[in-house]
Amino acid sequence: MKIRMVGVMLVLFSPINIAGLELKNRFVHSATQESMATEDGYVTDELVKRYTALAKGEVGLIIPGDLYVHSSGRSRLRQTGIHNDEMIPGLSRLVKAVHENGGKIIFQLSHAGRQTSKKLAGRTPLGPSSFGRDPVYLEKPREMTEEDIHETIDAFGKAARRAIEAGADGIRLHAAHGYLINQFLSPYFNRREDAWGGSAENRFRYAAEVVAQVKRSVPDDTPLLAKLNVHDHTPGPGITPPLAQYYAGRLADLGVHGFEFSSGSSHYSFMNMCRGDVPVKEIVSGRSFWEKPVATIKLSQLVGKFDLYEGYHLDATKLIRPAVGSALIFLVGGMRTVAFMLEALMNGYGDFISMSRPFIREPYLVKHILEGRTDQASCVSCNKCLARLANNQPVKCDYKPADKVAASQP
Q1: Most buried of 22, 231, 274, 317 (most Cβ within 10 A)?
Q2: What tens digit of pLDDT does each residue of 293-336 get?
Q3: DSSP strand E in 98-204: where?
Q4: Which residues contact 157 (CB under 8 A, 6 or more apart)?
Q5: Residue 384 in contact with residue 391, Cβ under 8 Å?
């Protein structure tokens, strides 16, 4: 036990610095959609309560669910917004609650691109290209004009400024999971033949312009992170690890301080994002009567094909890490046991352990590890928590013994 605690303290609970931001340990709450904002995107007591618990639970860095930077970029009902200045007071309240309880908080900025609906976005969904229909909302996007492109780039900059005004400790750009930056980077989503597509260099231009605009909008010492897909898992060729290696290297050259590497897209290949069980019944429960049969058939075909194993993004991460130089790496993807976490960090595969679903079930997990009360997360990756998001319900653990875990949190 003593040897175990020495390793835990020297590795998992050693402080680390990101561009001047001092973090007390290596545990990170990976951005997770909450569906806890108002329908207009404002912060609620429910949202503040969730992240207050994580800060009290000793999570070193909290990255809340992605904040939409423009009204056209909302991906879900009750997603938190950062698209106008009216959002700042609520976001400030969230930041204050985390800071008062010993945590640090970085806001993740996103735009849904084509992964939304006209009802959510207030207009026809936008994308780099206009082919096909979205598999979830069944709507055909409109190809973005030069004006659209520059408007959304500007929106990222303005959102970053609002984040810092609200007191956030840094910025993370969501360039994964099929959202707009990922769409521009991906050969599958981006089929343009102008200056914004047609080659890896041109596809990278949008991300480069967003980074430049964000850096112009915030103080020079602001930590800047990126979440990047290592594999799109789209129906046609998209980003794969070699292309992700090129993009990550370019982003590091532009001044991105840290990376979290993930895969899949929310609407085309969501089980690559969150391996484990496929809760078919729970996901389709909120669908209309005519959608349920088709959705049930399609989801049933995924059952048993995405079993969780620890570090399921680790191989791709190890391939890409040399390209980013001194940038820090946030390891995400099925992290569950202290032994695996220790091994990953001690071998130099990454610098942080990012988790999502375990913190939905156990906001005090890090505190329990520190106190020697547990050596692993109790999350069973049933994915019922994420099924709730598919039905616009607040995220929470629906696994049967959840009440017992919650009762033992403090």
Answers
A1: 317
A2: 888 999 999 999 999 999 999 999 999 999 999 999 999 999 99
A3: 104-105, 107-110, 126-127, 142-143, 171-175
A4: 210, 213, 214, 216, 217
A5: no
